[in-house]
Amino acid sequence: MRQSGMALISALIFLLVMLLIVSANLFISQMSIKSAQSAQRQLLFEQQALTLHLNSVTDTTSDISEAELTVVSRCPASYAVWSDTLVQCDLLTLTTSLLSDDSRFATSYSSMLLRQQIVDGEVLSAD
What is this structure's pTM? Predict the structure, then answer.
């Protein structure tokens, strides 16, 4: 009778250890899934922010408010040869910042743009 009691206790201890191992594995796999989903959401958020920024850069050539642009310089040195009366240019920065709804993810993109305009008017001739 003592041997059957020891066998029962040994079997219960073995089942308890197996239960702990299986529950630990399930917990680890749940944490891995949550981590993978969080990384996937962050990548999707980054992709949305980059798409928004690239659309802003594309729209800058057509029409964008001056409040979103920061003038860095009037004319870069490579345009120093041209007269200010003929070519007007601005070196601008366009920054797009985005914060997710739950404030978990934040990202920002910045681009430098060169805006050039040829001024209509009389061209002075050198005689």
Answer: 0.56
